[in-house]
Request: fold
Amino acid sequence: MPSSAHGPAGESRDRNGEKTEAVPAAGHEGHGAAAAGAASHGAASAGAATAPGQQPYAYSPPAALSTMTPRHWWVPAVAGAAGYVGMVLGTVLAMLLTLLGAAIAGDSSGSLTDQVDNQIGTFTGEAPDLSGAAWFLSVPFQLAAMAALVPLRVIASVGGEGGTAGITVPQHFALACGIAAAWFVARKLSAGLRVETRAVQWVMAAVGGVVWGALALIVTAVTVLRMDLSVFYSTLQLRITAVGPGLFAVLLVVGLLSIASALNVRSTQAAPGRVVIGAERSLPGALQVLRPIVVQFTVFAVVAGLGLLIWAFVKYGAVAGFSALFWLPVAVGWLFVLSLLSALTAGGAAISYTDLTGNSHAFYLWSEGTVPGWAVVLCILLALVSVLCAATAWGHVRPMNQRVARNPFAWAVLPLAYFVLGILLMWLLNVSGFAAEAGSRTQGAGFSLRPAGWTCLVLLLWGAVIELLARFVVPAFMNSLPAGVTRGLRGSERSRGRAAVVASAAAVGGAGGAVAAAGHHAATAPGTTTSATPAATSSPAACPTEDTVTAQRGDTAGLTPGEQTRVLPSYDDARPAAAAQPERTPMDPAKKKRIRLIAIIVGALVLLAMAAVIVFSVLSRTVFGPDNQAEELLQSVQDGKASAVAKAADPNVATGERALLTDEIYGAAENRVSSYKVKDTQIDGDHATVNATVTQDGVTTPVSLPMVSDSRAGLFKSWRVDETAAGSSLYQTFSVEVPAGVDELTVNDQKVTVDKQNDPHAQEFTVLPGDYAVGVSSASKYVTYGGNQVAQIRAGAESMDSGMSFSQSFTPALEQDLTKQLNAKLDTCAKSGEFEPDGCPFGYSIFGDEKDYRNPVWSIERYPTYSVSRSPFGSGEISFSTSKSGEARLNYQHNEEYDDDEPADWSDEDTTTSISTSGTVTVSGDKITVDSND
Reply:
């Protein structure tokens, strides 16, 4: 026979040559395969020393791989691929719902891709086309990669220079879809598959994690969105990608844990392993701490998530509500942290020319402007209810026996778990962004919004509170809860049974340092007595004592007569162990009826309170919301009711400046606002901004209306336009230069009184969108200021830089009447019978003795032509002058005899002279006064 201690089939033999069944040590992970591996290794070693002609040495794979078939490899690989597909499908679902919300909202600004096109076009001068297949084939994969907590980056380069910017927004819904897909596929495909050891289970899980991470990394890198844009005779290269170093690592861990959990039921390991028993013995209940945490977060998330979803629909409309799959998980996490009295930290930093500047602010639930007061109360109450549910769940599942009671570390298990949860939340709920110049350490900026650094300490305290409640408060009522609630809090029979087995094994396996064998299928050595260990229960009355373990089953060597062997419980004992819970004392029917009635009343009150909150929110947002007041205001603008507009939105200007805000003037304005549409409302405490669009003269323009609430209409806030806030694009201003002496204007055929001054002055008016025909009225038929000038006021536009200017001019009537007066004066002068009429523009100078001239007779041969002008020296006088001279004829007699002693010799003579004159004209109403310079 060969010198091997094994038979031809590899079975081990005892010292007498009889075959014995190999029994692995209890508590050893992978005991069956390890024993088989050891046997194979022994056979191989022995075989190496055999005589010539015997079977040569053959390679034997590691024990963890020796039992794995091809199915053990492709099942987790398919599950890992399914996990990535689930992430992508979850992202696509979120995108489709967001597009559905945008379609329902009917945003006139265009689709999402059109808006992105416009933004890029505004920056670069060239709008790309992002509506093609490349966009839709790339974006879902890039967004799905963000589920691994990696940033979505935009990398730009132009002319050898470039920069990068990125934002990290955890996509927990997509990640949850991936986890669910991987778990479901692994569970279904592994049906009937035997996982011999824990090592095989974790190897399979690792295969799935590697496939998941590698597939995500490859697909994300292949689907990078690339764009080339022309900017100032250069080419701007843009890349949008979520490829990062953490993508593979995070998904590897997620796939590992997800698939390992799915394969847990396929494991054929009969008893808890050493690691599990050691963890349970050192930190009692460490394997059950997830249940109270999950119960608490589930209770809080269901109610808070529903409230946030309603709030998003009511406040921001369909787009915000239908896009909740992108932001709701993070928002619920933030609210969870805030409701447990921790804080969110908003921080930013900028690096510029080697100078680092930055700051951070902590926001608590009660910080001003963060959450309304009534919501603060509801959130804290919800947090307290979730804490009580977690304490009840922990009271049901935490181990309770003498070993746990004597272990001081049992008090620290749950608080430490909450401490670790706080650290994880700081990572899982971190929304951040950055921007940096490529290859530069002197140009960059970043921001982040995450739970505060002390969140882990706050949750540590909450864990201690839950531990105290579970020990001293919950036992008073935990057995009186309805059966359905109890089952939901403590878990399934199988999970509780396996936990009880682990607790029992921990109580048994470490007492004496020896390890008992696992399983009820192993044979007991002759002469030894075995006794089954009762499973640990969660009732203090069922606390088992810890007996000394001195030998393994099937190995009684060294046992003294009468010494017992303690057998570790196996997972086959899980259901009996779970059934070992103490029987519940039947509740008194009257008490049960009272509890049910109280529960119904409390539930009804809670539902009524939630309904009241929802109705209050809806009414506050609609009937009594700022957008409703804005709609009334815009409707008055459309109807031309300027007085109603000024009453609802006081322009906060002097009386003279609001002279055009009348129904008669604005109602007669051309090109008023023909239609409007309220887009959204941004509310910040008692201040709000209503964003709307108005259509005027065929052009649609966005306008913003700042609103303020400084009073209440009963329970609801009363909103009005904030006239003290800047940013309203509804009121505009323009100015008119009023000429000197004018006290009245005409606007849209309506008379408007203005201050009368001796000098020209500017008058400013506040008006609503429309066209205003402005003219200057004249009290005289001789003076005019030209025709009407039109001020075209457009909503959202800048106020007019230059005002209207009117210059005084004269009507033809002034020259006509002036000519009449001057000509009449000439006629009077001609009838004077004097050679030089006084005050007349013509005359004849006598040279010599006046006695030699007689009988002057004047006649006007041609009247002059006159022109009127304003004084160039700014005195305001109106002057006239002769633009074309006239002509007067003089007939007279002249004595030709020069000798005075002789009789006179009279002869008839005539002469002509030009007529020209100048002077000033004073206009007073319809009368003129002429003052000539003659």
